[in-house]
Fold:
Amino acid sequence: MPFVLAEFANVEEKLPLYVCCVGSHEQKRLDRPKGYPAHQLFLCRSGAGIFRLPGHEDQTLGAGMALILPAGTPHFYSPSHPREGWELGFAAFDGQAAPAVLETMRPFVLRAFSADNFGELWRQLEGLWQLVGLGGEGAYWEASRRMYGLALAVLEGRADSKRPMRAAPAAPAGDAGNPALRTAVRLMHTHFHERLLVPNIARAAGYSIQHFNRLFVRHYGMPPQQYLLQLRMRRAIQLFAENPGIPVGEVARQLGMDVTYFIRMFKRTYGRTPKQHAKEGLAARS
Structure:
């Protein structure tokens, strides 16, 4: 899940709870002396790292654990072992209802805790990322509902551990419980900047191209080629935002796309050419 910044276009004025950003990556050292402007939920999928919070004990966040930070909380975090990967998932949220949501999770704020239902939390985070990535006002209303559902899932996972446990329903073939499909999606997230071909991704997952397409559409609601294209288009937006004046050809190169094809797909996705988008971004900064 690459980082996705929610583009609300004033939808936040209507939403009592909204998602600011969501994603996951191999986390590096990061120092935020003034904190982050929105509340954050962190999930650690693998590896381990240290969160340093002024006035609090250092928190070690390892695999299967979560941490909640209120907006404006100064913090620093870094992998415990720089040579080992530390995969963090995160969702930042805000809105008029955000303080009330945060209050319900107060016992788990500012301290790392083990999430008994971590797999479910991660699946919900992935679903939130996919939804925000699609964009559109309707998607953000649904993202608001899912963010609230994610908060409830955190509470559910930390509720009385002595309560009878319900058996989890069996995951149907081809869904997020399928290791081969997860491997394929992880491959796309990690190598979307290369010239990936769907047949090669299917082969890496151990499926025929036809079966892989069926499974992918069943779980993600779109063909793998469209999913891969969305990853690249979102990354293009980030590259233009992070590198004012970057040439269109360089963006295409970093996405592993032919320039002509990149321009055509960008315009089809956003209704304007990459050059027009970059020019608008520069005008907004001046």
Q: What stands out?
A: The domain at 4-157 is CATH 2.60.120.280 (Jelly Rolls).
